[in-house]
Amino acid sequence: MTKLRLAIVGAGPAGIYAADILLKAERKFDVSIDLFDQLPAPYGLVRYGVAPDHPRIKGIITALREVLDRGDIRLFGNVRFGEDITLDDLKQHYNAVIFATGAIRDADLGIPGIDAEGSYGAADFVSWYDGHPDFPREWPLDAASVAVIGNGNVALDVARMLAKHAVDLLPTEIPDNVHAGLEASAVTDVHVFGRRGPAQVKFTPLELRELGELRDVDMVVYDEDFDYDEASKAAIASNKQVMVIDRVLQSWRQRPSVNNAGGEASRRLHLHFYARPVEVRKDDAGRVAGIVYERTRPDGQGGVVGTGELREVPVQAVYRAVGYFGSPLPGVPFDKRHGVIPNREGQVLSKDSNQRVSGIYATGWIKRGPVGLIGHTKSDAMETIRHVINDQGSWWHPEHPEEEAIPALLAERGVAWTDLDGWHRLDEHEISLGAPHERARIKVVPRDAMVRVSRGE
After folding, report:
1. Domain 105-320 has CATH 3.50.50.60
2. Mean pLDDT computed over 207-211
3. What confidence tens digit (pLDDT) does each residue in 223-260 have?
4. Where are the alpha helices (DSSP H) in 170-212?
5. Alpha carbon separation from 70 to 171, 395, 412 (Å, rounded)
6. How large is the greatest C-alpha to C-alpha distance in the chain, in angstroms?
7. What is the CATH number of domain 2-104+327-417?
8. What number is the average pLDDT over the span 119-127?
9. With bands split at pLDDT 50, 70 and 90, how would you rate the model's confidence at 380?
10. How far is CA 131 from CA 79, 176, 179, 371, in A?
11. Dist. CA 395–CA 102, nearest whole Å
């Protein structure tokens, strides 16, 4: 029986699903899988890209943990691809590699003034409030009025975290430094801008509904945004998700805060539809002073066109939440325009000749771009794994496929890697930190502390 040694780079949902599907596949070969991640802890986006007050989504961790805890996948955390281990190394020790490194950078937004001081990428803010070890411990929250650009779930997460009172986050796994930062926040008004109408938004009903449940936060919507065209009415009538979103928004129109008519809360969350940001206004010191947007209108096809009418809202900070973007990997083909590894159904293609590169595959957001919910990653992985299984004739032929070779290599290079037992130690440690305060856990944020706990040092 053929023995396949497979490396997967990225221990988030995409990487873990791929490993699970391959191990369960009906096959004529034996397989052993090593999972590498640059972070000391697994689960990727679920741990570091989902807001701490979303325990239902974080429940996905339970399913991922069951896969890892079976014991048939080795985990090597705190190992940076391209530094601690290279593509040439993988070719020496494995038959193939799947890259599942996701997309963690912010997509660009090319409008004047976006480089102002006080203008941030949403992905960076998410990494801060989720306690990502490679981001600063402090975040500037001195703006009273804030703009969030985007109409997807990340935009709503950012808006909710900015508007929500810090004390209401205490039951979650929010890191102590993040709670302290949000506690001192000066924010009173959060403005969310989307260029299309309420019937064309990209967020889910659950995300939207949660906004309206925030304590001491008024939801502000504007009557002018609800003069629906026929395409919007058709979308509401034919799509259950759109219908629920409309129902939630219509319920908010009945509240006293609509059109700024004087709610009682100390904070307000404004939703501006048909609003295409065109410029970030700066003050004399180069700081954010306002956001200029063009009022749009429906085009009758489900899209929008500009009206030429410009409006300005005074704000002191801007967060762009217009999508994530992948990062290039040393030695691996990369499409700079789309932020993905070029591929055909997960089979990696050379950048110039568009020919298949043997032994290299991709899955998840680095394969298809940052679209779809976490659940979509499973079907995505199945497509990639089908090709991995069928491509046996083009696998690499490693010189050192022995399983003990990788720990020896990392030890020789002085890499303080973490393993599955180490993750269990860190997991238990974080839970124990939270227990006295009746909190789910308190995340350990510094990388060196994570490694120290994981390695039992």
Report:
1. yes
2. 90
3. 999 999 999 999 999 999 999 999 999 999 987 765 55
4. 176-183, 205-211
5. 30, 26, 29
6. 73
7. 3.40.50.720
8. 95
9. confident
10. 19, 9, 11, 23
11. 24
